[in-house]
Write a structure and sequence with these properties.
The protein is of the alpha/beta class. Helices cover about 40% and strands about 20% of the residues. It contains 13 helices and 15 strands. The strands form 4 sheets. A 5-stranded parallel beta sheet has the order 2-1-3-4-5, with helices on both faces. It has a 5-stranded parallel beta sheet with strand order 7-6-8-9-10, with helices on both faces. α1 links the parallel β1 and β2. It is globular.
């Protein structure tokens, strides 16, 4: 029997994360008696939390594969054990600082993320070409504000644009935060505003901008968590739940029918990771062998809810991105397919290959 370990952090912000990831994985694998899932939680996802969970799954449970919604930099603390036991680990997450995460990849570690870094790079690149060259940035520290702001800035620079000011806010927004934003708005003449925050804070910032006369046409937002496609501002994302490609329609309908839950980015990542595993198992005609399985994973090409999925030299699964816009006649959302320039993220990986990560990180988004 094949055993797949599932590791996820305990999240007060997204308590459904573990459930939805596991449900998506189960659905893709069409689990039967030949596969056993072994889910475990890893506290806040810090290295101290992660290490004993990996050791338990590998040494005690003797799992064959691990799917981990954990920052890959935390996983580095057990990389020797993973390499020694040759256990394939698929690291899922939001992909907010992917170029830094994927430096010097371990042979057993693969990545399948929401690709938020690339999404923000593309949004900055598009905005600089269509809205203007000068950007003001308002982001939440809690919600991976720094790497997403950096990605957006790199995208604007590629098109000749540049950020004029940055506001990194706290999770809870006191009046002083808005006073600082207002001061920057009055001091600097910008063409558009880049917003990188989620949930209640995102809504408060967008409402505040609207009350201060900033139209949607001058706002760019990072991919949202659980409000995909609900905003009129410019956004780019690797997935929207109402994409009409057959693989996504199948996923959405089957997930709702099977689980009675709504789809989200966590269930999508679980499902897509399951498809990746399933195809690699099917292509490996022998009894499970981790070396052979890893080779199949690294050369896989398959179709999922985000379209065609391929794997690059840094062992990342990568897909297209999409730019939504309403049809002028019907009002129905249409999605333009965008291809992210792979050389850009590889260039960032090379540039960050000797960079150390210090300080606090948001486990749930900083992947």
């Amino acid at each position: 029997m094949l055993k797949i370990g599932i590791i996820s952090p305990i999240s007060k912000e997204y308590p459904f994360l573990s459930r939805d990831l596991e449900e998506g994985l189960e659905l893709a694998l069409h689990r039967n008696g030949d596969i056993k899932l072994v889910p475990m939680e890893a506290g806040r996802g810090s290295p101290n939390d992660v290490t004993p969970v990996f050791r338990h799954l590998i040494i005690r449970e003797k799992v064959d594969i691990i799917v981990a919604f954990i920052d890959a930099i935390s996983i580095k603390t057990v990389s020797d054990l993973i390499e020694q036991c040759r256990v394939p680990v698929i690291c899922t997450g939001m992909g907010a600082r992917l170029p830094l995460t994927a430096t010097q990849p371990d042979s057993c570690l693969l990545y399948n993320t929401y690709r938020m870094w690339e999404s923000c790079w593309l949004a900055g690149n598009l905005a600089s070409n269509t809205l203007g060259k000068k950007a003001g940035s308002i982001s939440s520290f809690f919600d991976s504000g720094f790497p997403l702001v950096y990605a957006h800035s790199k995208g604007t620079e590629t098109s000749g644009g540049y950020p004029v000011f940055f506001n990194i806010t706290h999770k809870d927004l006191p009046e002083q935060e808005f006073a600082l934003i207002q001061q920057n708005m009055q001091t600097y003449d910008v063409d558009y505003y880049f917003i990188s925050s989620f949930g209640k804070e995102r809504g408060e910032i967008l409402d505040w901008l609207s009350r201060n006369g900033i139209p949607d046409e001058r706002i760019v937002v990072s991919p949202s968590i659980h409000s995909l496609g609900q905003e009129k501002a410019l956004t780019v994302s690797s997935w929207f739940k109402d994409l009409e490609m057959p693989e996504n329609v199948t996923f959405v309908n089957e997930y709702k029918a099977t689980t009675k839950h709504q789809v989200n980015e966590f269930s999508m990542l679980g499902y897509e990771t399951g498809l990746w595993i399933k195809q690699s198992l099917e292509n490996d005609k022998t009894e499970f062998d981790s070396t052979s399985f890893l080779q199949q994973m690294k050369t896989a090409v398959f179709s999922g809810p985000r379209g065609l999925v391929r794997v690059n030299n840094n062992q990342m699964a990568y897909t297209s991105h999409y730019l939504p816009s309403p049809d002028n006649e019907t009002g129905k959302m249409q999605y333009q397919q965008l291809d992210y320039p792979l050389w850009e993220v590889e260039q960032e990986i090379a540039a960050n290959s000797i960079t150390n990560v210090i300080g606090w990180q948001n486990t749930y988004l900083c992947k």
